[in-house]
Each structure stands twice: as C-alpha cells, then as structure tokens.
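step=encode ok
step=design start
structure_in=
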C-alpha cells in the first residue's frame, strides 16, 4: 500500500469528522498514547512490518535512559537497512555504505506535503518539514548536518538538494537554477574533496549553502559560503590518502589534446604532489567518469570554454610546480634544476619565466627602505614553492565558489531578496582524528565544537531555560556543555588561537615548539588540555613530545604542533605574490590583487580568519529555525552491514543523542508564543474566530479546550503554549488545513462578490455617464433640427407670400422648392402609355416648361410606340385613322366601332359563289361583306354581298353579279349621323350601265365605309347627314331616306314614300 495515501486518507477522515462537528471532542480518536488512538493505529497499520522494526522514534523507547536500549534499537533497524530514526524532530542517520532503493522519485512523492509522523523516518521528511515550515510560517530554515568524517553528511545534503530540485514547483527559469544548484556539487567536490583514510570522498572544506525560494515556493537562487579549505593537501598527503580529486580526474580523463597543451602526462606517478600518499587509484572512484561529469557540470553552471581552459591551466601549473626541483650551491643558495617545468609554468600561468625563477629561489627583503634579493637555501625554496602552490590552489578554489555564486544568484530585478525565504544547508567537515593531527584537524574539530555548542544552545540549553522562564514545572536534564572547550580554543588573549597568533606575530625566533611551551604556560591547568610534559606516566606513553592534547566533547585528540605557525601565517613571499599579480591568466588576476602588495596591514592569520568566519556562521544559523540530521558512521572500514558497537556508542555519546532524547521525553515537542498560536489556529474555534478580544492566554486556553486537548498534552506558560506530542499539533494542523479550504472559499466568494459589485457600480456609473452624454448629444441635434425646421418653414411661408413676385431672396427658396417638387412629382408620375393623358399641374412658373416636357414625353412615348408597331397593326391603325377622320364626332355609332378591330374581309372563299369567283378570275378582292340592299322603289330589303375589288365595288347576289360600280363613277357616299347601318353609294348618272344610287345597309357600316373610302380613294366624299339623305333613283328621280332617333332600329317605307329609319341613340351628345 502506498504510504502517501495514508495521509490523504487521514485528512479525509478528519474532514468528515470536522463536518460532523465532533472533531477533537473525541480525543481518543486523535490524540492518545501510541497504539491506543484510532488514527495512529490506522496509520501504523499502513506501515509495513519492516518499518516497525524497533521504534521509529527513540522518544517511544520504553527504557529511554538506557544507552544499551538505544544502541540495540539502532542495530535492529540497521540490520533491516532502516538507516533513519527520529529523536523527536532530530533525524539520526546511519551510513549504510551501500545503495539503498529509498531515494527514488516515488519516495520523494511519498514524503511531499505529508506530516512528519505519518510516514517512516527519512531525510526527505526533514527536508519537506523544513520546506513547509518555511512556507507556512515564513521563517528561514536551516538544516544542520553533523557527524564525523565519513558518516554521510555530504550525501545527506545532496539528498536534500535533490528533493527540493525534484519536488518544488518549477518554471523555465527555475529549472536552470535547479540544474545549477545540483551541478555545483560535482564541481565543488572535484576541487574540494579528496580521499582520506576515513572517507573516499571526504569534503576538505566546509560548505554552507543557502537555497532561496520565491513566494510560490520555487527555488530561484542560491548562495554558497565556503570554509577553510585544507590547502596543505595540495603539497602533501598522508599515506593512503590522495590529493584533491580534480588532479586525478584531469590526468585520467583529460583528452590527449588538452593534456598536450597543459604539458601533462597521463600518469599520476609522474607528479610529486600526487605520489606522497602512494594511492593514485581508489576502487570506489572512477576518475575518468567523474571528469566527464565535472566538465558537463562546469558548462551547465555557465563556465565558458576559455574559463575552463584557464582553470585547467592553473591546475596543471600546480602539478608542474610540484615537479620543480632544486639543487644546492656551495654557498647554500638554491637553484632550479628543472627548466622544462619553468617553461610550462611561464606559459600556463602567463608570467615571465625569469621573474618566476628568481621568485622561486629568492626572497625580497626590505631593509631601511631598500629592496634586497636574498637567495633561499634548498629547503626554504622548496617551502616557498609549496606555499605558492597552496596559495594558487586555495585562491582559485575561492574564485570557483564566487563564480558558482554568480551563476546561482537570482538576477530578476522584480525579485526582492528580502521577500525570499531561505533554507540553509550546512555540510561541514566532521570531527576528525588521525594518527597524526595537525593545524587542519585542530580547526576542523574546533568547528565541530562550535556546532555542538550551537546544538546545545538551540536545543538542550535554550529548551530548559525556556521552561524555566515560562514557569513550566520541569525536571532538569543533565548534559555536558562544551562551552568550556570552545572557550579554551577561542577566548581572547587566553585561548589557544590567541596564543598561536601571538607566537606568529612576535619578534624573535618563535617556533612551533615555543608555541607549545607558551600553551603549557597559559592553559596548562585547563581540564581539557594536556601535553606530554603535563601528562601522567600512562598518558605520556601515547603522546609525542611535540603534541598537545585536547579533550574534545567527542573525544581526545593529540595535535602535533609541527607546522602550526607556518600554516597559521599562511605566508607567501612578496616576490612570489608580485609575480602572480603580473599573471596574464584571467582567473589569477582576480585571485591576486595588486592592492594586496601595497597594503601594509598584516593580514589576519588563518586561525583568526577561521574563527571569525565560524562566528558569522553561528549568527546565520541562529537567525534561522534549525532542523538536525545527526549522521553516524557504523564502522571505520567503509563496509556495508558492519555494526561496530564501540564506534557507534562513542558517536551516540559525543553527539549528545542520549541527552537529546531525555530532554525530548521530558519536554514538549512544540511551543509557540500565544499570539502566533492564536493567530494561526483561531479559525478552528467559534469563540476565537475571527478575533479574540480578551487576554491572549485565555484565548489560547479557550481554543485548545475547544479542540479537546487533554490536560497532560499541553501546558500554558507565561507567554507560550507548550504542546507535548507532535501528533497533537499535527492533528491541529490537519484540522486547519481542512478549515482553510472552507475559509478560502468564503473569502473567495466575498471577494468575488465585492469585486463584482465594484465592477458593476463602475459599469453603471459609466453607463449613466454615457447615457447622459448621448442624451445631451441627441437633444442638441434635435434642437438644431427644430431650429432648422422652423427656419425652413419660415422661409417657406415667406416664399409663399412672395411667390408671385419676380425671383428675389425671399422667394427663391420657395420657388426652387416648388419647381423641384414639381419635377420630382413628374419624375414619379410620368404617363406610362400614349393613351395616358394624365399630367401633373405645373406651378405657374413652369407652365411652359411643363408643356414642353409633356410634349417631349408624348413624342417619346409615341416614338417608342411606333417603333414597336408591326405592319399589320400599322395597317389596322391607318384604317382606323381614316375612319376617325371620316366619322369621329359625326356619326353616333362611331365610338362603338373604335375598339373593334377592322378585319380583312367579312366573307371567306367558301361564302362566295364559285361561279362568281371564276367570273372574277384573277382580280384580287380587297374586302367582302354581306349587306342588305333596299330596292330603289319599293325599298324591299334583299341580301346581297358587297365585294371591293381593285378598281370597283361589286354587288353580288349568289353567283350573279348584280351591279359593278367603278370607283371612278362613285360620286360620293352618304350616311346618317345616327347609329344605323344605312349608307348610300352615289354613282354618276351618265353611266348607263348604272341603275342609279345604291341603298345598302350593313352591320359593320364604319368598317365597310372606311374600306370603300380607302379602296376608292373617296375619303373626302363621305357625307354624313342629319335628318335625311336624298338619292337618285333613276333619270332624275329622287328617293329620300328620313332618319329619326328612337329606341330601336326600324326600317320601313313611310306613307310619304320615303324610307323611314328609326335608329337608337347609342351615345348622348
Ligand atoms: N545514504 C547513503 N546511502 C549510501 N551510501 C552512503 C550514504 N551516505 C553515505 N554513504 C557512503 O558513505 C560515503 C561517505 O559519505 P559522505 O557523505 O561523504 O561523508 P561525510 O560528508 O560525512 O564525510 C559516501 O561516499 C557513500 O559511499
Ligand atoms: Mg563530506
């Protein structure tokens, strides 16, 4: 089962409990002794059986005062590869000396955002806890990793860094920072770590690293402070140890080309500085591989190729310096026997060869203001050379750290470093005891004393003092306070460092031995100090005469004073410094500052510098909330699975773990000032939320009672609340987590409401403003329009009044308007057909123009009409035209005939007798119509046919041609003005053939007469008579037809012998 789910499961359970309103009331459920509370049981049941080997927290040990039980618990767990165990919040870590599968990404996820006790102990839990404290309480944190050399400090610090790099939120920028933070490790380890007897990868410098986080919790930058590099290792290594890794990496891994440029051979045995320990190869180290890693890391951090080249020039030149050999002259002055080295050195360091040579064999003395070059003997020259190597390497290392810091610095201007939260990681050299211990071990062990002091100050001492100050009943725990040893080393005037400095500065021939004597004189009586001379017989056997012993909190160490003064002075002859200041190597020019040459002040000694830097470190650490990782080394042989009880007991003792445990058991896991506590948790109790008005202590008391804390679980001090078990607090934290969500929702909704309301108000205001403006604009426009309209009307009225006057300013608008509107009206209502005679009435001024237009329009329509007329229609119209000219307004039934089309003939071929047709032959008949003929005498009516031929009109009865009237003999035609169909064809009497005028009646009188008039060309010979028609009967005899109007047509012979025709009136006149 995935452990990380347990935390979530717990939270869910608690959430539902909180919902039901009885959270913390049922305290059995949440807070109880181990094994008896529900959640704890549930939680523990989720841990595998393996996790429960021994106890995960020493606080839970039955016999917590027993060292045996303590060691036994460590052993049980170590056997199961459970290397981590807590003492409260302190993590005890055993070095497994083998790779355990507990650092995967899944493991990291399991520890992320989960409370300390919910999962098995792990370095990730410490890292996560520090991270969350930083985020929630906005307090800088530091993780202090201590333990002796090889106990796993550096590994632990790397695990912490990896944890942050993988689990913290990231953006693109942050990713590069993460990479750089991670990659700074292999680089610094290459230049600052070495194989020692204790550890194949021993850090030979102290390192404090700040990781900076932005407000979102993403790592955005870093800063490293380095402490005292063990420079002596550059020129000398004890048997079985090595120089710094980088030398071997370069020689083993460097490409042929590179090595040729650097003048190096692929064999470490060739270099004096690498052969002292007689240990060029180490099975656990792959120099060639590490070289690749370092090269890659350098470029990720941002080193340019040129910078890497210059850096390697320096590393190579150190090796060449080591191979510089001296010969001695009779006078004792040393000379250099290895010219090639000088050649390489001059090139690699970018200095003049002769200057370098002289500086390596002479010493510049200033006597009475004059500079003198005094030759060195062989031994002096060799130590000058080694001093130069150390100086070059040491300063380059510092340059490297600065360079890395540049690349880790967060460069965004918007980011205020004051807003950054910081987690510090301290991985500093552990307590160290060798066969022969020198100045370096003295410094390293002093540093560990200081850290132990800090641990005591921050945990044991301060904790107990606090109980006292807060008036909490408390049973004091005895512990060893190592302040006395710190004072022995660092006290002003009386401390070992002061005495060492004094010997270094004092005129006369001070030496390491005089320093030892001075120590005996000054601190001889100190309980933690001993020398051969001061010791009793038994101790003398294990102490050299040149040694002094310090009884450290972690054990006794004998220090050999040889080299103390030199190392403390850290002297580099002036002329060597001058030579380096002239270097063309860009790194060296930054390392050797010319100002140093003119500065008359004596530089601080190494020990004092170290002391001061430690004091600063303590300040940094004190300002942060610490988390502790206490590393234990299971054996000296770097072997997996070997549990060396003696060695471990020793470490447990000097690390003060037992005292730590006792204080922890007796004390309270957590304390906070009332205001902080109340501020954080007040939302969990209705009485304290949102504000508590009374005394803080009462508020806190109300709050914890509401939460259901049992009396033995907490105490109220003067200014703080003390909570005994972490789980009580964690349960409260979980409740807060749940509460926060609902608070956040509330806040969000009120904020959303508020912001929406503000937005709405703003919008409303804007709308009103816009509306007002718009209305204003509209009103202005309307007013303007009205004004214009009034003006127009006024102008119009005036124009109307003056309309009959000649054009003048008063009426011109009106007249134009009338004209315009008439034309527009005309344009809209032009007649569409020739028959449409409508036309708008023009204004007086346009009468003439209107008439013209009307004519034009008509012409145009006529023209268009005519253009579209076909020949038949034309013919028809021509006939109609003739009819119109003859009959219009003259004969009553004319109008009825107008709409009736004239036809070509009223009789077809079959209507006419074939005989007659034959008689007529080819002559073309133009028109034929049935008619009624009235006899001239008796007026008898007879049916006849009237045929119009080309030259004559023929009257036919059946097949008989009755009468043929030549058109030339047709004198005229008479009709009445009434609606009858009577007509008389008058013929010339001279023509004998003719029988007199012919009286005919025809239905289609208008058509027939029109045809006759056209065929005979007698348009002007048709008489329309009123009343009566006279006609020739024969030889001077006359007949008369009288026409009267009546209701219907009546044709009869009247008594007076006239033919009387009564015709109806169709059209009233
Ligand atoms: N957690 C661990 N898992 C596996 N090996 C470890 C672990 N911690 C330390 N080691 C081994 O122990 C060696 C020494 O550890 P290191 O951290 O360098 O010690 P220190 O910095 O305390 O001197 C490492 O090189 C590694 O081989
Ligand atoms: Mg280390």
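sequence_out=
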């Amino acid at each position: 089962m995935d452990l990380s789910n347990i935390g979530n499961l717990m939270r869910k359970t608690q959430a539902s409990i909180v919902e039901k309103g009885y959270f913390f009331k049922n305290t059995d459920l949440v807070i109880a002794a181990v094994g008896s509370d529900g959640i704890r049981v549930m939680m523990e049941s989720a841990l595998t059986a393996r996790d429960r080997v021994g106890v995960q927290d020493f606080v839970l040990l039955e016999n917590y005062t027993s060292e045996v039980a303590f060691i036994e618990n460590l052993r049980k767990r170590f056997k199961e590869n459970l290397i981590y165990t807590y003492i409260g919040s302190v993590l005890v870590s055993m070095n497994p000396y083998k790779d355990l599968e507990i650092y995967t990404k899944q493991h990291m996820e399991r520890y992320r955002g989960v409370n300390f006790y919910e999962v098995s102990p792990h370095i990730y839990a410490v890292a996560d806890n520090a991270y969350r404290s930083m985020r929630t309480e906005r307090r800088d944190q530091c993780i202090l990793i201590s333990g002796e050399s090889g106990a796993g400090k550096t590994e632990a610090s790397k695990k912490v860094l990896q944890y942050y790099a993988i689990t913290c939120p990231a953006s693109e920028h942050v990713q590069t920072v993460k990479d750089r933070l991670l990659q700074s490790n292999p680089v610094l380890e290459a230049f600052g770590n070495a194989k020692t007897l204790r550890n194949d990868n021993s850090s030979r410098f102290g390192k404090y690293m700040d990781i900076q986080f932005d407000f979102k919790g993403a790592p955005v930058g870093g800063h490293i402070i380095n402490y005292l590099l063990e420079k002596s290792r550059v020129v000398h290594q004890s048997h079985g140890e090595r120089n710094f890794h980088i030398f071997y990496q370069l020689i083993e891994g460097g490409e042929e080309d590179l090595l040729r440029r650097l003048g190096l051979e692929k064999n470490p045995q060739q270099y004096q500085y690498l052969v002292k320990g007689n240990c060029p190869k180490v099975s656990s180290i792959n120099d060639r591989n590490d070289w690749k890693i370092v090269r890659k890391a350098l470029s990720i951090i941002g080193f340019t190729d040129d910078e890497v080249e210059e850096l390697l020039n320096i590393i190579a030149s150190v090796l060449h310096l080591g191979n510089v050999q001296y010969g001695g002259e009779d006078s004792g002055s040393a000379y250099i026997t290895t010219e090639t080295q000088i050649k390489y050195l001059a090139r690699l360091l970018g200095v003049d060869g002769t200057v370098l040579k002289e500086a390596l064999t002479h010493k510049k003395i200033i006597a009475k203001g004059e500079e003198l070059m005094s030759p060195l003997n062989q031994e002096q020259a060799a130590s000058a050379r080694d001093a130069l190597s150390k100086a070059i390497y040491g300063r380059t290392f510092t340059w490297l750290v600065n360079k890395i810091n540049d690349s880790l610095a967060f460069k965004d201007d918007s980011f205020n470093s004051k807003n950054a939260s910081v987690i510090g990681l301290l991985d500093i050299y552990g307590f160290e005891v060798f066969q022969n211990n020198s100045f370096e071990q003295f410094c390293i062990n002093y540093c560990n004393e200081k850290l132990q002091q800090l641990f005591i100050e921050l945990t044991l001492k301060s904790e107990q003092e606090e109980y006292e100050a807060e008036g909490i009943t408390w049973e004091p725990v005895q512990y060893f306070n190592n302040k006395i040893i710190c004072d022995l080393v660092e006290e002003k005037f009386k401390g070992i460092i002061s005495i060492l400095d004094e010997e270094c500065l004092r005129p006369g021939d001070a030496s390491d031995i005089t320093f030892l004597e001075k120590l005996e004189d000054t601190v001889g009586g100190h309980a933690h100090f001993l020398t051969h001379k001061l010791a009793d017989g038994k101790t003398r056997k294990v102490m050299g005469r040149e040694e002094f012993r310090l009884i450290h909190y972690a054990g006794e160490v004998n220090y050999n004073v040889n080299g103390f003064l030199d190392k403390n002075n850290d002297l580099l002859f002036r002329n060597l410094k001058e030579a380096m200041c002239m270097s063309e190597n860009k790194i060296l020019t930054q390392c050797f500052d010319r100002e140093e040459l003119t500065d008359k002040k004596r530089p601080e000694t190494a020990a004092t510098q170290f002391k001061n830097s430690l004091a600063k470190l303590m300040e940094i650490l004190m300002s942060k909330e610490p988390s502790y990782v206490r590393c234990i080394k299971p054996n000296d042989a770097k072997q997996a699975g070997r549990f060396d009880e003696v060695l471990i007991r020793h470490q447990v003792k000097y690390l003060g773990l037992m005292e730590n445990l006792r204080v922890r058991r007796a004390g309270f896991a957590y304390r906070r000032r009332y205001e902080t506590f109340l501020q954080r948790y007040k939302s969990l109790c209705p009485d304290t939320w949102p504000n508590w008005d009374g005394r803080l202590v009462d508020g806190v008391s109300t709050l914890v009672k509401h939460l259901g804390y049992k009396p033995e679980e907490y105490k109220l001090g003067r200014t703080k609340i003390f909570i005994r078990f972490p789980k009580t607090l964690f349960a409260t934290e979980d409740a807060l987590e749940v509460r926060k969500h609902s608070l956040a929702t509330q806040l969000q909704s009120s904020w959303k409401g508020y912001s929406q309301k503000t937005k709405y108000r703003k919008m409303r205001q804007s709308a009103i403003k816009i509306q007002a403006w718009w209305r204003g604009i509209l009103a202005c426009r309307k007013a303007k329009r009205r004004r214009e309209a009034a003006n127009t009307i006024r102008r119009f009225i005036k124009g109307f009044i003056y309309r009959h006057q000649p054009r003048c300013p008063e009426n011109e608008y009106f007249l134009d308007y009338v004209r315009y509107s008439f034309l527009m009206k005309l344009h809209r209502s032009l007649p569409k057909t020739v028959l449409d005679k409508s036309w708008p009435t023009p204004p007086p001024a346009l009468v003439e123009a209107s008439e013209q237009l009307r004519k034009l329009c008509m012409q145009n329509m006529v023209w268009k009409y005519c253009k579209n007329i076909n020949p038949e229609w034309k013919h028809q119209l021509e006939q109609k035209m003739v009819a119109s000219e003859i009959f219009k307004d003259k004969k009553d039934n004319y109008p009825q005939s107008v709409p009736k089309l004239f036809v070509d003939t009223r009789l077809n071929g079959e209507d006419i007798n074939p005989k007659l047709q034959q008689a007529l032959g080819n002559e073309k008949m133009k028109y034929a119509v049935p008619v009624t003929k009235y006899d001239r005498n008796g007026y008898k009516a007879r049916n006849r046919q009237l045929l119009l031929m080309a030259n004559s009109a023929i009257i036919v009865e059946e097949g008989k041609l009755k009468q043929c009237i030549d058109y030339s003999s047709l004198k005229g035609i008479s009709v009445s003005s009434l609606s009858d169909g009577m007509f008389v064809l008058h013929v010339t009497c001279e023509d004998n053939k003719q029988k007199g005028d012919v009286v005919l009646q025809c239905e289609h009188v208008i058509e027939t007469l029109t045809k006759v008039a056209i065929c005979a060309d007698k348009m002007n010979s048709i008489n329309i008579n009123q009343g009566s028609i006279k006609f020739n009967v024969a030889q001077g005899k006359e007949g008369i037809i009288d026409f009267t109007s009546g209701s219907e047509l009546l044709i009869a012979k009247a008594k007076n012998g006239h033919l009387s025709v009564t015709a109806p009136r169709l059209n009233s006149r």
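step=design ok
step=annotate ok -> The pocket of adenosine-5'-diphosphate (ligand 1) is lined by residues 95-100, 147, 149-155, 199-203, 430, 631 (CB under 6 Å).
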